[in-house]
Amino acid sequence: MADSIIAPCIQGVAGMIFRSFIVFILISGIVTLSGCVYRMDIPQGNRIEPEVIEQLSIGMSRSQVEFLMGTPAVVDLYHPDQWHYIYFLKTGDDGKIDQRRLTLTFSNDLLAEIEGDRFIDGEP
Q: Where in the chain are the domains?
């Protein structure tokens, strides 16, 4: 009779220990592998490169600027003579954030003013 009472208790404890061991192995595996996850770079907006900005010059037409820079990210309805180029990059490796902005102002459909981030050797 003692065997019949003790046997289910031992099986219950053994099952509980086994389940705890499996959960521990799964959690430790997830924690270990989380460092191996690839995190991709997230670029948003218009890419603003210093080489392209150097090619901009006062007096260019809207179509020349659009050919060189692409379509602006923002064209304000209240200021249609201003084009805003915005670039945002979050790198997946270290989470570093790179933001760049450029505002181009036109007068009589010709580029009149270039305003925004200044670039030195590719750095804003």
A: 2-36, 42-116
**Which pLDDT does position 107 carry in this prediction?**
93
Q: List, as one string, the DSSP characters of 77-113.
A: SS-TTEEEEEEEEE-TTT--EEEEEEEEEEETTEEEE
- Please state which CATH number belongs to domain 42-116: 3.30.1450
Largest CA distance in the chain: 102
Q: Which residues of 36-62 are buried (b: 16+ CB within 10 A; e: fewer)?
A: eeeeeeeeebbebeeebbeeeeeebee
Residues 6+ apart with CB under 8 A from 45: 73, 85, 86, 87, 88
pTM, two decimals, is 0.61
